[in-house]
Each structure stands twice: as structure tokens, then as C-alpha cells.
Design a protein that fits this description.
The complex is a heterodimer.
Chain A (H helix, E strand, L loop, with lengths): L7 H6 L3 E5 L3 H13 L3 E5 L2 H9 L5 E5 L7 H10 L8 E5 L4 H9 L4 E4 L4 H34 L2 E7 L9 E4 L1 H6 L10 H5 L4 H17 L3 E8 L5 E12 L5 E10 L1 H15 L9 H18 L3 E8 L2 H8 L1 H16 L26 E6 L2 E6 L5 H16 L2 E3 L2 E3 L3 E8 L6 H17 L5 E3 L2 H20 L5 E10 L4 E13 L2 E3 L1 H11 L2 H23 L4 E5 L2 H4 L3 H13 L6 E6 H6 L1 H13 L4 E6 L6 H6 L4 E4 L1 H5 L5 H16 L3 E4 L5 H10 L3 E2 L10 H12 L5 H8 L16
Parallel strand pairs in A: 1-2, 1-3, 3-4, 4-5, 16-17, 19-21, 21-22, 22-23, 23-24, 24-25, 25-26
Antiparallel strand pairs in A: 6-7, 6-10, 8-9, 9-10, 11-13, 11-16, 12-13, 14-15, 18-19, 18-26, 19-20
Helix pairs in contact in A: 3-4, 12-13, 15-16, 16-17, 18-20
Chain B lengths: L12 H10 L7 H26 L2 H18 L2 H15 L6 H22 L3
The chains are: A alpha/beta, B mainly alpha.
């Protein structure tokens, strides 16, 4: 007989350890010799008791037991060793007599792996041992891989199941779940489960459709792959992915399914989150630009097909930047969230679009496109997917304006934010999303330029008439962010001492390569409300410059900033000046404010509180263009004003018309009696300077001394003109020895 | 190993040959060790069989013949093995009426085998 030993390599590597147990010395010896001859490593034992002692501290690869032995026989020995830890699966070969059927049965009952009829056919015995060893190794590998699989399944929250059609009618067939599968469904290992019980885990609303799906799949023996929302026995809501393939018998009949269940909740949640992030604004939760464009495209498509109009409402907040800049970004965000809530209530806002139903003819699913979304910043859009005519859109716009007028409580402070709404209607105002967005934008800007807090429907006229202006305004909008604004400074001088005693800051806009004159954009800024952020910027910039000059040449006077009266009405002004002074480490008085006489008198009542507060923090206020308005002298006596600036028109005519010197004389007299400083503006000639001085005003400002110039040039001017006393006006001034000292004149170094 | 013709009827030549093949070069003196083990076993078991018979202890007797059955077959004492097998079968089936004759055969054949084995072993 040829020994079938394909495992010669394995033997060579490490001879298998065999424990051979037989009470008969002859057999023991013979078997041992024969097996050693065949590459096994044999340990002999003469009986069961002795064998068990050996096993206590040594583990063979396989055990060969003689069944019939005095004392502890093979069966009892086998039973005992199976009970020992670590010996549950060691292969045990029982040696029995020929024709001894009873012993064979008993051997298996005792836990033997196999039996072998005693004979002197050693090769057969060796082959059997090899076979058992190999089976044992395979089994161990299988167990290891099963353990690995179980671990992997646990990590993947996955388990397997097996479903057979058999079973009593209505019982749902028989279902087997692996321990991991049971865990996925919130059951313990070994818990009894039935298909019916599992189906009860499916969330109520989904149960019917899941059942229908299962029935359909089973009927056609098709592949099953679906995600099912379930409520587990412990109350957890999970999403279970079920995937299964049908199994067929030899007749080709589907007999059941094998597959897996997997908890995919985390993945689904992440997917939903990604989808949400991609389509919704994270701050307000409203649809974002991308989602809006998508919805708008669908709405246009639908409107075109069904021949009805739809509307886009571009909504831009009017004073958002002020809130953001003065109260901080957190407050700005808070405001946007509140605004989003309000806007949402103005339309039939749909969070989700019934995408599948959109294509269906006659469906109203397109109404689920209706929404308010955020384009970015303080820009929102309302999409009305179906309107009868523009009056519908106008109604929604009115509602929006209405809800926006209520004050918003932000950071403990009431804010008043209004909106400007531009409306564009498909198909009249454009055929594409891009056109309609642009035109609703044009309409919105027309509202902005006409005073805001209103709505406008797009009209081609808007473009023709105001395009340039709109473009300018749109650009001015971004001028601050783009650092296009600069301040130029015109020095104020005291001609008696030929010193600079301060400077007036004048705003310039560097748009592209050109310098836009203030006359071209300040009125527009006033009109559009942009003057507010512009003024805030100017105040801050002036404070910064004061600090720089203080550092570079010991500047201690004030920089004057022109402010429109509406800025004085703002309660945040004082706070902002204070913040600027703190931020740049300068005394408050180093920034001075100028308000025109006309502006002051027009809004006198609302400006007075600010003037009083300003005086409290030592910020001086000058009245600009004095003499052109209609000042009530009675008021002038009570107002906390520090300086009067004689309007350039009077200065221009000095020495030309006698009236002008009369007026100037009167102004100087008023100032002196009220103990106010007085300064002449627009001084261009030595003659004007001379006359002014003679009339009692030594503080002046004008081209004669310097045009408004960039801050670095001003330093240069000081260094090269004033200090070396080189300018013609200085020589002239030196000769002048007229007039009284101007009251409360700012003293100072000759820089 | 030379085998006297007298032994031929007691110990089967082919069986002895198979033993010899386990250790062809005689390096491990396998045949000698096996025969010596058998001799020891036989010397111990034959009196045990007689004693069990005297005591009427069938279980002890059955164990003796079971052991002898396979070991005697291994060394070529086929007649003795057959005799043991018959006794074991009768005991298993509880056919004890005709046991005495068989036991006499066991004693007789056992003695002959023992003598033959001893003759083969070096002193």
C-alpha cells in the first residue's frame, strides 16, 4: 500500500506530536515504532490516568487512544480530556476492535474525532493521522478566519442572515441571523427572531412599503438591496442596509435568501449632512446659491412648459454692514438668522423639493420649489415658482418689507434693518436664471438709490437711466473692502506764528487708476446710505493717522473729519470715537468733527444729544460753511460748539466786495462773544490772508498754504516749507502784526 | 533472523517478516524488543486468564483475551489470536456454556507460543 502523504513537507517542518495510549506493551511498542518510522513524534502512555497526567502540562497535536483498557478506558479518558480546557478540539483517534460497532458509537459519544480498527496496517494508520491533523489545522484556520470575520462584521456593524421559504403558512418562512446580525438589530446572541418580529422593527410609516418591496422581491426571486429605517427594541432609531441574493434548488426554484444586514446610520447621516452642506447655507439653514439656482432652473423649466409666469425677488438688507461693523460679526450673524426666519415666513417655504414628481404633467410639485434662500452676505432671494401676474410678486415684496421693519434684538440691542427688494418676472424680464438674477439686482439697486426700504419691479428703463449711477454705487459699495478710499489732509495754520495747528481730512476714492473727486461720489454715498460706512471708515482712518503723526513728528492737535448730520444721529457715534481712541492710543480730542451749518440746523433736535455727549468725551465739533445757513443765534449760544469755519464764498470775496468783509467781521464778532474759535476756509491769496488776519482771524486753511495732500506729503510740506519758513505766506505773516489773538487759539510747537 | 522449522506452525513467518521490516537493519532491535514485550505480556496474562477462569470473572478474562488477541496477531501467533478472538466473542455474546474447551486451547496454545518466542530470543 502506498502511503498517501502529500504532507511530507509539513512533516519535515515539524513532526506532529502524537500521544499514543495503549495498555498492551506489544501494541504500544509496535505502533510507536511504526509511526516513528513514518515521521511522527510519539509519546507513549500505558493507560488513561497516565495519559491525562501527561496532558496536564503538555499538548500533543493528536491523541491516539486504545478503547479497551483496564482502569480508565479509552472512552472515559476521551470524555475527561474533552472537559479539559484547550482540549475541546484536539483530534482524538480511538482504536477499536474489528466488528466492534458498539465501541465505534461509544467512541463518537465520548467525543472522539474518529476511530480506527486495530490492525498492523501502519501506513493506513499514519494516513488517517495525517488526515485528522490536516482537518484539525483547517478547522483552526477556519475558526480563526471566522473570528476575524466576526470582528470585521462587528466593526462594520454588519451581520449575515439566511432566510428559507419553508415554514407554516403565514409564519414568514424561517429566518436565521448570525450573532453579529442579531446585534445589528439590537438583539442578543441567541435571541429568537422571526421575520415577522423583525418587520415590526421597521418604522411605522415605512412598514407597508418595505413589506411590499419584500413581497415583490421574493415573488420574482430578484436581488434585494434597500435601506430600511428601524426602531430597535431599545428605542434607538437606525437605518439598516439589507442586501440579499436568492438561492435556488436543483429545480431552479427559489428556496430562500442569504444576505447581510448592516447598520448604515452613520454613513447616511454623514451623506445627508454633506448633501445639506452642499445645498444649504450653514448659518441660516436656508437654501444656498447653488440650491437656489437649481430650483430657479427647475421653476423656469416648469413655467415655460405650463406657460405661467414665475418671479425672483432679490432682497438686500439696507443697514446690515453698520450692524456688522458696530456690533461685531456675531451680532451680524444673529441678525441674519432672525432675518432668515422672517423671510421664510413670507413665502410657502419648502425645505425639500419633491424632485421625482416635478416631471409629472399637471402635478403641483413645482410649488415645492418655492423658497427663500441666501445668496451670501446680506443678500437673499425669494423664488415664487408660480404667480398669476406681477401683483402676486408685489404682494410678497410688501410682506417682506413689512416684516423687516420690526426692530430686531441683536446682542441685547434693538436694530432697525430695512430691506430693498428688486423683482424680476419670467418670462417678461428674462429667459434664464442669469438674466433674471441680474435684472432683479438692477431693480433692487434702483430701490437702494432712491432711498431704500421699498421694492421695485424691473424695467428696462432702470438700466438705461441709472446704469452708470448704479455701477458707481455698486463699485462704491466695495470700495471700502478693496481699500480704494484714502484720506487727504489740508493743514490748518495759524498765520501769526506760521504754525500748523491741525488738519482737515478729505475723502478721496481711487477707483482703478483715477481719483474720483468727492463731488462725484459723496452725494451718491449720501443718497444711498453708503455715507454711513464711509464716515465710520474715515473716523477710524483719521484716528490712525493722528497716531502715526504723533509718532513721527509729535503731532498733538486734531484731525477734523466731515460728517453728515445723520451720522450725528447715530447712537453708536460716541462709542465708535471712543473705541478708535482706545484702539490707537490717542486722546479723544485728536479727532475733531465738522458738521455743515445747514445740516446742523436741519436736524438740530436730533443732533443736540450727540453734541452734548461729544463734549463730555472732549471731542470738539466745528460748524462748517458757517454763514451760508440760517443759524439761530439763540441756539448757537447753547450748543456745545468749539469752532466756526467761515465759508469759502465770503473769504473768496474778501477785498473784492465790501459786503463780504462785513459778514466776516460779524462772524468773527459772534465767535468772539461766544468764546468760539474761528477759522477762515478757502484762503487762496496773500491778499485774502492779509484781510482775514486784519479782521481778527489768524487761523486759516486754503490752497495758499496747501492743497489737501496725502499724509506723507503733508509731513514733507512741514519739513520743507513750514519749518525752514520758506513759503511766501510766512514772510508775509511775519510782517503782520495786527489783530488780536484769536480766542482759545490752539497753542503748539512750530512743528 | 533464522527461524527453526519447528516454529513454523506456531509463529507465522509472514507476520515475523513484517515485524522485521519495521527495522530492516536491526538498528533499533525492534523485533527483539517486540518479542520480549510479548513474552513479558504473555507470562503475565496467561496466569491472569487462569485466575479469572477460576474466579468466574468474565470481565477480567475478556480483557486478557482482548489484549492477547491483537498482540499475538502482531507477532504471528495466529492460532493463539484466533483462540482469543473466539473467547472474546463468546464472552461478548454471553455464550459461556462452551468456554472451558476454548480456555484449555488458550492455555495450551499460549504455552506453545511462549516457548517459541523464548526460543527466538537471545539469552
Amino acid at each position: 500500500m502506498t502511503p498517501a502523504l502529500p504532507l511530507a513537507d509539513e512533516l519535515a517542518a515539524k513532526p506532529p506530536e502524537v500521544l499514543l495510549v495503549d495498555d498492551d506493551e506489544v501494541n504500544l511498542l509496535l505502533t510507536a515504532v511504526a509511526l516513528r518510522e513514518r515521521g511522527f513524534h510519539i509519546t507513549e502512555s500505558g493507560g488513561g490516568e497516565h495519559a491525562l497526567q501527561l496532558l496536564a502540562d503538555w499538548a500533543p497535536d493528536i491523541i491516539v487512544l486504545d478503547a479497551m483498557m483496564p482502569g480508565l478506558d479509552g472512552f472515559a479518558t476521551c470524555r475527561r480530556l474533552r472537559a479539559m480546557p484547550g482540549y475541546e478540539n484536539v483530534p482524538v483517534l480511538m482504536l477499536t476492535g474489528l466488528d466492534d460497532d458498539a465501541s465505534i458509537t461509544r467512541a463518537y459519544q465520548a467525543g472522539a474525532t474518529d476511530f480506527f480498527v486495530k490492525a498492523n496496517q501502519w501506513s493506513l494508520l499514519a494516513g488517517r493521522l495525517q488526515y485528522l491533523l490536516r482537518a484539525s489545522r483547517t478547522r483552526m484556520e477556519l475558526e480563526r478566519s471566522q473570528a476575524k470575520l466576526a470582528r470585521a462584521q462587528d466593526l462594520a456593524r454588519m451581520g449575515s442572515f439566511d432566510w428559507r421559504r419553508v415554514g407554516a403558512a403565514g409564519s414568514g418562512g424561517s429566518l436565521m441571523l448570525s450573532a453579529q446580525g442579531l446585534r445589528v438589530l439590537g438583539h442578543g446572541p441567541g435571541d429568537p427572531v422571526s421575520l415577522r418580529a423583525i418587520l415590526r422593527l421597521v418604522q411605522r410609516g415605512e412598514r407597508r412599503s418595505v413589506l411590499r418591496l419584500l413581497q415583490g422581491v421574493a415573488q420574482h426571486s430578484s436581488v434585494l438591496a434597500t435601506d430600511v429605517p428601524v426602531s430597535l427594541p431599545d428605542g434607538r432609531q437606525r437605518i439598516i442596509h439589507v442586501e440579499a441574493e436568492p438561492e435556488f434548488n436543483e429545480h431552479g426554484h427559489g428556496v430562500g435568501y442569504t444576505g447581510i444586514v448592516q447598520d448604515v446610520t452613520d454613513r447616511r447621516v454623514a451623506e445627508d449632512r454633506i448633501r445639506h452642506l452642499a445645498n444649504f447655507d450653514s448659518l441660516t439653514g436656508l437654501p444656498n446659491r447653488r440650491q437656489l439656482v437649481w430650483r430657479m432652473e427647475r421653476a423656469i423649466e416648469h413655467a415655460r412648459r405650463l406657460g405661467h409666469p414665475c418671479a425672483f425677488l432679490m432682497i438686500d438688507l439696507d443697514r446690515f454692514k453698520i450692524v456688522n461693523d458696530t456690533l461685531g460679526h456675531a451680532a451680524g450673524d444673529e441678525l441674519l438668522m432672525e432675518v432668515a426666519q422672517r423671510l421664510r415666513a413670507c413665502v410657502r417655504h419648502s425645505e425639500q423639493v419633491m424632485e421625482g414628481a416635478l416631471e409629472a404633467v399637471g402635478s403641483r410639485a413645482h410649488r415645492s420649489l418655492e423658497a427663500v434662500g441666501r445668496l451670501g452676505g446680506d443678500e437673499f432671494i425669494a423664488l415664487l415658482p408660480e404667480i398669476n401676474d406681477e401683483r402676486d410678486a408685489q404682494r410678497v415684496a410688501d410682506r417682506i418689507l413689512e416684516v423687516m421693519r420690526d426692530p430686531v434684538l441683536v446682542g441685547g440691542q434693538e436694530c432697525f434693518v430695512t430691506a430693498s427688494v428688486g423683482i424680476a418676472i419670467f418670462p417678461r424680464d428674462g429667459a434664464s436664471v442669469a438674466d433674471l438674477m441680474r435684472n432683479s439686482d438692477v431693480a433692487m439697486f434702483s430701490v437702494k438709490s432712491q432711498g431704500k426700504d421699498a421694492s421695485a419691479i424691473y424695467s428696462p428703463l432702470l438700466v438705461g437711466r441709472g446704469r452708470e449711477k448704479l455701477e458707481l454705487e455698486s463699485a462704491l459699495h466695495k470700495a471700502i473692502e478693496r481699500d480704494e478710499l484714502v484720506l487727504h489732509y489740508q493743514p490748518k495754520v495759524d498765520v501769526r506764528s506760521a504754525r500748523m495747528v491741525g488738519a482737515e481730512a478729505l475723502m478721496r476714492w481711487q477707483r482703478g487708476g483715477t481719483l474720483v473727486p468727492p463731488g462725484d461720489f459723496i452725494p451718491l454715498a449720501e443718497e444711498s446710505g453708503l455715507i454711513l460706512p464711509l464716515s465710520e471708515w474715515a473716523l477710524r482712518e483719521a484716528a490712525r493717522q493722528a497716531r502715526l503723526w504723533k509718532n513721527s513728528f509729535g503731532f498733538t492737535d486734531a484731525i477734523a473729519v466731515n460728517l453728515p448730520s445723520r451720522v450725528f444721529e447715530r447712537t453708536q457715534l460716541v462709542e465708535q470715537l471712543h473705541q478708535n481712541a482706545m484702539a490707537f492710543g490717542i486722546p479723544h480730542r485728536m479727532v475733531q468733527l465738522e458738521i455743515t451749518e445747514t445740516g446742523l440746523m436741519k436736524e438740530l433736535q436730533s443732533v443736540i444729544p450727540a453734541l452734548l455727549q461729544l463734549k463730555d468725551i472732549n471731542v470738539e465739533v466745528a460748524i462748517d460753511d458757517f454763514g451760508t445757513g440760517y443759524s439761530s443765534l439763540a441756539y448757537l449760544t447753547t450748543l456745545p460748539i468749539a469752532e466756526l469755519k467761515i465759508d469759502r464764498s465770503f473769504v473768496r470775496d474778501l477785498g473784492v466786495t465790501p459786503q463780504s468783509s462785513g459778514i466776516v467781521t460779524a462772524i468773527i464778532a459772534v465767535a468772539r462773544s461766544l468764546n468760539l474759535r474761528v477759522i477762515g476756509e478757502g484762503v487762496e491769496t496773500l491778499r485774502q490772508m492779509e484781510v482775514l488776519h486784519r479782521l481778527g482771524c489768524s487761523l486759516m486753511q486754503g490752497f495758499l498754504f496747501s492743497r489737501p495732500i496725502p499724509p506723507d506729503d503733508l509731513e514733507l510740506w512741514l519739513k520743507q516749507t513750514v519749518l525752514p519758513r520758506r513759503a511766501p505766506w510766512i514772510g508775509q505773516a511775519d510782517e503782520l502784526d495786527l489783530g488780536d489773538p484769536t480766542p482759545r487759539m490752539a497753542g503748539g510747537r512750530p512743528y | 533472523m533464522p527461524s527453526p522449522p519447528a516454529l513454523a506452525s506456531v509463529l507465522d513467518e509472514a507476520s515475523l517478516q513484517r515485524l522485521h521490516e519495521l527495522d530492516p537493519q536491526g538498528v533499533n532491535r525492534v523485533v527483539e524488543r517486540v518479542l520480549r514485550a510479548f513474552e513479558t505480556s504473555l507470562t503475565r496474562l496467561l496466569p491472569q486468564a487462569a485466575q479469572a477462569q477460576a474466579d468466574g470473572d468474565h470481565e477480567a478474562l475478556r480483557h486478557v483475551v482482548h489484549t492477547l488477541k491483537s498482540s499475538s496477531a502482531s507477532v504471528g501467533a495466529l492460532e493463539l489470536s484466533r483462540c482469543c478472538s473466539e473467547i472474546e466473542n463468546r464472552l461478548r455474546l454471553a455464550q459461556t456454556d462452551d468456554l472451558a474447551g476454548r480456555l484449555k486451547c488458550l492455555a495450551l496454545e499460549g504455552g506453545r507460543v511462549l516457548a517459541a518466542v523464548r526460543a527466538l530470543l537471545p539469552d
